[in-house]
Each structure stands twice: as C-alpha cells, then as structure tokens.
C-alpha cells in the first residue's frame, strides 16, 4: 500500500484480527480511483520503533512476514490489509508463523458486505432511489389531482 490515505481507509473500515504473533486489519479490496479492477491482496507491513527498537530486528520481522505471506499455501484472498507484527515473530518457527497467518486470514470477514438484503450482494439499482424516471417528472394527471 502506498500513502497515508490508503492506510487510513483500512484503519477506519477494516476489521481487526488479533493473534499472539501479530495484529491484522483487513478491509475488502477496492481499486484506487482510475485503476482497473484486478482483485489482489495488498498488504502493508508496519513495525513501530516502540515494538522493536533496533532497525535490524524491524527489518527482519518485515522480511519474515513478507516471505510467510508470499509462500502461504492457497494464496491470499483479494483484500487490503495492514499487518502489525509483535516481537514474537522473530523467534517463532516459520511453519507456525504461516499457520497463524492462514488462521487469521480465514477469520477475516467475507469480501461481500452483508446489507439489508440478508447477506446477498446488491446488484444494480434495486432500492428505487437514485435515478428519477421520466414518468415521475411529468405533470400530474387528472386522477392525481
């Protein structure tokens, strides 16, 4: 992810999934303005100085998490996510890190929002609002008066 705006959107609209090794905040995939629709996983890895004081350890944590995400069996679902690893990421065996990431991504909510239609995705203009048809803009008839 690039830019503060994208991180802010994921922080405000995403759902947090906490694990002993990291915190994952996941939001559904939406392309940037003017970008073509190519559903893919976009993950920003954030390691603060408060969590890991030394730059070498912060970079090692980023590299371990990035490699675990890259080699995850089954791949990543299309989403935008922020991953904030804890210091335990440096000491845990690699297969356990991958298993924890897979569990967290499985807990993440579905990519289709459950609206008023009982969990079914909305298609088109079913609410009746928005566009006004020509018959509604015509002059009232004798029956309506």
TrEMBL record:
Entry keyword set: Endonuclease, Hydrolase, Nuclease, RNA-binding, tRNA processing
Major enzyme class: hydrolase
A single GO molecular function term of this UniProt record: ribonuclease P activity
Pfam families: Ribonuclease_P
Region (Disordered): 108-145
Catalytic reaction list: Endonucleolytic cleavage of RNA, removing 5'-extranucleotides from tRNA precursor
Annotated Polar residues bias: 134-145
Domain of life: Bacteria
EC number: 3.1.26.5
InterPro entries: Ribosomal_Su5_D2-typ_SF, Ribsml_uS5_D2-typ_fold_subgr, RNase_P, RNase_P_CS
Signal peptide limits: none
The UniProt record lists the keyword Lipid biosynthesis: no
Family: Belongs to the RnpA family.
Subunit architecture: Consists of a catalytic RNA component (M1 or rnpB) and a protein subunit.
Protein task: RNaseP catalyzes the removal of the 5'-leader sequence from pre-tRNA to produce the mature 5'-terminus. It can also cleave other RNA substrates such as 4.5S RNA. The protein component plays an auxiliary but essential role in vivo by binding to the 5'-leader sequence and broadening the substrate specificity of the ribozyme.
Protein name: Ribonuclease P protein component
Protein species of origin: Deinococcus antarcticus
């Amino acid at each position: 992810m690039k830019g503060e705006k994208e991180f802010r959107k994921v922080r405000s609209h995403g759902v947090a999934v906490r694990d002993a090794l990291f915190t994952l905040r996941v939001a559904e995939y939406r392309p940037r303005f003017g970008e073509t629709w190519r559903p893919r996983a976009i993950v920003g890895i954030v390691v603060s100085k408060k969590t890991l004081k030394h730059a070498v350890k912060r970079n090692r944590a980023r590299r371990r998490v990035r490699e675990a995400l890259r080699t995850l069996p089954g791949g990543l679902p299309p989403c935008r996510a922020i991953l904030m690893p804890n210091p335990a990421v440096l000491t845990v065996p690699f297969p356990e890190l991958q298993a924890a990431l897979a569990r967290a991504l499985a807990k993440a909510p579905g990519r289709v929002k459950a609206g008023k239609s009982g969990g079914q995705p909305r298609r088109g203009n079913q609410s009746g609002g928005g566009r006004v048809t020509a018959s509604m803009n015509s002059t009232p008839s004798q029956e309506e008066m």
